[in-house]
Specification:
Protein name: Cytochrome P450
Number of strands: 19
Distance between the termini: 119 Å
Family: Belongs to the cytochrome P450 family.
Structural class: alpha+beta
GO molecular function: heme binding; iron ion binding; monooxygenase activity; oxidoreductase activity, acting on paired donors, with incorporation or reduction of molecular oxygen
Number of domains: 2
CATH superfamily of the largest domain: Cytochrome P450
Subcellular location: Membrane
Bound molecules: protoporphyrin IX containing FE
CATH topology of the largest domain: Cytochrome p450
Cofactor: heme
Strand content: 5-15%
CATH class of the largest domain: Mainly Alpha
């Protein structure tokens, strides 16, 4: 045999062997491997066959689904994504399939979705598909890891609310052009048929051309026309690559067919070159302007170049910014990301509003109410609640990016799954948004009403942006991260005379204060404060008994008595034997708090911040009181320090424990200056009064009001107290057994959280949830709204029902930050156990001695004065038992 023929035969034999191996692999080894994998994930039984679907099956089902007609009321998921629809509806919220040899997991389980989307280092964008698609969209979309962080940081400023405001004229002009065209069609008729889709396409494309390139808008338009052509060619390229049996021949090398110089591919590359040229010329002109000092920051390109320039300056290295090529990619991406998405949302909105005329009318009424026939402005647009609800519902039913794809590069755990390296992950927003378990039985229906309760709202305090948040996940993010979200300070300087201490400390300073103060609030230490709670409460009860000497009932406003009780408790527990001096201090502090309140109420007029320094009579008195308070506290402290130095420490009151802990801290670090200074100890003592007195006093007042209204719960609570203690003095073990009382106090703190708003401030641009907030934004996390939210607490959210806490707090909240009467994260209330024990002791003793009901002179008026108080007191009728 000739050598040539031999080689041919050998080649042929090798091909046959390879082909047989591929077929065996496909028919035998691969399914075995897949079955083994599924078993390792706990998936058993007959579900294998379907779950191991493949690309061919997906394409076939998609074609079939698209050939079937559908009506407007049909569910869209079976048409849009038939394969996954079948998998997910048959096998649950996670399904596995293989794209050739590559495992693909489709996930529609909210907790896992969050895990995947939150962790962008582990779950990266899945790239490396069709190389032609890179001609079309790259930029930030296609970057990962630190590269992405840099791009995002530079691009962010372009999308700040403040910048977007300036793009309003571009939105308006583009929309006006579209409307003019529709009006032309209607010149001599009252109605006409229009396919609105291409018009909306032109509108969104125009908006991007104008907002991206400002004055170079005409060139921008040309760029986007070319990009549209490229997008169309890309879709054709996608549709043409599938041919049967391809996986047996050379599956991995199939990609190269995209490099084959077909006419289409050549044209795509030609367009790309032209687009880049055009963008590069616009950028070069801009850079020349910037270098000549003439910057324009009103369009996306201008802001992007400016931000990149600042970034370079910040890092003192030119290579840190975006290169011209990278800016080109970002500009191309603006078109892709910003045009199609908005166009789709608008078209589905028009279709749905045509179907639901009632919502169309509601939306129109709102728009006409806000703007009449005038040009819409930013303030008005921010007021359009119904329109926002409609958009949210449209995006829920027709999410524009219905599938988010991620890729893992190493073995990774998601939920209970252990996924191998190179697994493709598909997060399906369409299925998430249509899930009945999440959205209820009307999940597939258009009902914007479900978005009527906005959990995030924006407002401006003068020039300062303020965001109000009552969404548990965001509340947790904010409260957990106290380095980024700091206490908002720097308001009224007079308030520093009343509250400072740990409340006002930040960063490392706060860490130190908290470490030194913590031991004072250990449960073990608080136990020893029980006698102080008892004596103070006994005094209050004695006064009420006196009033009832020769009658069986009398009317009392219990509010001031409860206030005295809690301030007495603090005087005794903070200063122990120096209690009388402590009482004096707290009387002075009360006077100062009242004066501060008056100052708050009277100060508002333009330029007001300076008027707090004006030496008015009130301001002088406040400073005088402060000096007196400090002198008193300092004298107590000095006496204590002298005792400590003489070896006679008393660790039974807050001041003693604080000084002891401070001493140990300085010793540990072998440097006296590390501990708290006397001045700082003074501030902490002042703070105990403010933080610990009103909060517990309010809780008790609301508890008595609610138990007067809900006599059944008052009876249940009394029965429990009498069962545990009879008429004897409550002790710590017994107090810990009071389950009904705990449920009642939890419910009172839910309905009337004494601190109804937690305020934070960010000092630099920060991401919260999906929002990127600029530096200096004020954030308000609202326990009040979180606690009253029907979505979280059910239909009886506004009602008093302690039963909901019968299985504990975590059972109701399911680990969410939806119940935060004591705040959350590292800055959670330090006095939580102290306050709860004090309230339990007082309530137990009150229930042992009296029954109570609402008086006719009680007027229900909760109001927020630092804490949530009963504005006109708590007038009750007390009965002696
Ligand atoms: C029912 C009673 C109480 C409630 C509802 C309550 C509520 C709160 C809340 C919501 C915060 C967090 C504020 C924020 O994050 O901006 C807080 C912090 C604080 N509370 Fe309480 N509190 C109570 C009782 C007490 C008591 C009895 C004391 C002390 C004797 C106390 C001392 C403090 C201190 C020192 C802080 C600041 C902690 C820090 O920033 O690290 N609280 N409290």
């Amino acid at each position: 045999m000739e050598t040539k023929t031999m080689y041919c035969l050998l080649g042929l034999a090798a091909m046959v062997v390879f082909y047989v191996w591929r077929v065996c692999n496909y028919l035998w080894f691969e399914p075995k491997k897949k079955e083994k994998f599924l078993r390792s994930q706990g998936i058993k039984g007959s579900s294998y066959r379907f779950i191991i679907g493949d690309l061919k099956e997906i394409v076939k089902m998609t074609k079939e689904a698209k050939s079937k007609p559908m009506s407007l009321s049909n569910d869209i998921a079976p048409r849009v994504s038939p394969f996954f629809y079948k998998c997910l509806t048959t096998y649950g919220k996670i399904c596995f399939t293989w794209m050739g040899p590559k495992l693909m997991v489709c996930i529609t389980e909210p907790a896992m979705v969050r895990e995947i989307l939150n962790n962008h280092y582990q779950f990266q964008k899945s790239r490396g598909g069709n190389p032609l698609s890179k001609l079309f969209a790259k930029g930030i979309f296609d970057t990962e890891g630190d590269q992405w962080v840099k791009h995002r940081k530079i691009i962010n400023p372009a999308f700040h609310v403040e910048k977007i405001k300036h793009m309003m004229p571009a939105f308006y002009v583009s929309c006006r052009e579209m409307i003019d065209k529709w009006e032309e069609m209607l010149v001599n008729k009252s109605s006409c048929e229009v396919d609105v889709w291409p018009y909306l396409e032109t509108f969104t494309r125009d908006v991007i051309s104008r907002t991206a390139f400002g004055s170079s808008y005409e060139q921008g338009r040309k760029i986007f026309e070319l990009q549209t052509e490229n997008a169309k060619l890309l879709i054709k390229a996608f549709q043409s690559v599938y041919f049967p049996g391809y996986r047996f021949i050379c599956p991995k090398y199939m990609r190269f067919n995209r490099f084959v110089p077909t006419k289409r591919h050549k044209r795509m590359k030609e367009i790309d070159r032209e687009v880049r040229e055009l963008i590069r010329s616009i950028i070069n002109k801009r850079i020349a302007l910037i270098e000549a000092g003439e910057t324009s920051k009103n369009d996306l390109l201008g802001i992007l170049l400016d931000s990149s320039y600042k970034y370079v300056k910040e890092h003192e290295n030119k290579s840190y910014g975006l290169s011209i090529e990278e800016v080109v990619e970002e500009c191309k991406l603006f078109y892709f990301a910003g045009q199609e998405t908005t166009r789709n949302m608008l078209v589905w909105t028009m279709v749905l509003l045509s179907q639901h005329i009632d919502w169309q009318i509601r939306a129109r009424e709102e728009v006409l109410h806000v703007f009449g026939k005038n040009i819409p402005d930013i303030d008005g647009l921010n007021q359009l609640k119904t329109v926002s609800m409609i958009f949210n519902e449209v995006l829920r039913l027709y999410p524009t990016g219905s599938v988010l794809k991620r890729l893992i590069h190493k073995e990774t755990k998601v939920g209970n799954l252990n996924l191998p390296a190179n697994t493709l992950i598909q997060v399906d927003s369409l299925f998430l948004h249509h899930d009945r378990d999440i959205w209820g039985n009307d999940a597939k229906e258009f009902n914007p009403e479900r978005f009527s309760k906005g959990k995030i709202c924006f407002t401006w305090m003068g020039p300062k942006l303020m965001v109000c948040i009552s969404e548990p996940a965001m509340a947790r993010e904010i409260l957990n991260n106290y380095y980024q979200f700091q206490k908002s300070r720097g308001g009224n300087p007079l308030s520093k005379l009343v509250v400072k201490g740990i409340f006002d400390a930040e960063g490392d300073q706060w860490v130190k204060h908290r470490k030194i103060i913590n031991p004072a609030f250990h449960v073990e230490k608080i136990k020893h404060m029980l006698p102080a709670f008892y004596v103070s409460c006994r005094e209050m009860i004695d006064k009420w008994e006196e009033m009832l000497l020769d009658k069986s009932s009398c009317e009392v406003d219990v509010w001031p008595y409860l206030e005295t009780f809690t301030s007495d408790v603090i005087s005794r527990t903070a200063f122990g034997s120096s209690y009388e001096q402590g009482r004096k201090i707290f009387e002075l502090q009360t006077e100062n708090a009242k004066l501060l309140m008056k100052a708050f109420q009277s100060v508002y007029f333009p330029g007001y911040r300076f008027n707090r320094f004006v030496p008015t009579k009130r301001h002088k008195r406040m400073k005088e009181i402060d000096r007196e308070v400090r002198a008193l506290i300092r004298s107590i402290i000095n006496k204590r320090v002298a005792l400590i130095e003489a070896g006679e420490t008393s660790n039974d009151d807050l001041l003693g424990i604080l000084l002891d802990s401070n001493y140990k801290y300085s010793k540990e670090l072998e440097n006296k200056s590390y501990g708290l200074s006397i001045e700082e100890v003074v501030e902490e003592c002042k703070l105990f009064y403010f933080a610990g007195q009103e909060t517990t006093g309010n809780t008790l007042a609301w508890t008595m009001v609610l138990l007067s209204q809900h006599i059944d719960w008052q009876t249940r609570a009394r029965e429990e107290v009498l069962h545990v203690f009879g008429k004897s003095k409550p002790d710590i073990d017994g107090l810990n057994q009071l389950k009904t009382i705990s449920m009642i106090l939890n419910e009172v703190l839910r309905l009337y959280p004494p601190v109804s708003v937690l305020r934070r401030l960010i000092h630099k641009e920060t991401k919260v949830g999906n929002f990127t907030l600029p530096a200096n934004t004020l954030i308000q996390v609202s326990p009040l709204f979180l606690h009253h939210d029907r979505d979280i607490w059910g239909d009886d959210a506004k009602e008093f029902n302690p039963e909901r806490f019968s299985k504990g707090i975590s059972h109701v909240t399911k680990g969410q930050a939806s119940y935060i009467p004591f705040g959350g994260g590292p800055r959670i209330c330090i006095g939580q156990n102290f306050g709860m024990l004090e309230a339990k002791m007082a309530l137990a003793m009150i229930l042992q001695n009296f029954s109570f009901e609402l008086s006719s002179s009680y007027s229900h008026a909760p109001h927020d004065m630092f804490t949530l108080q009963p504005q006109f007191g708590a007038h009750l009728i007390l009965h002696k038992l």
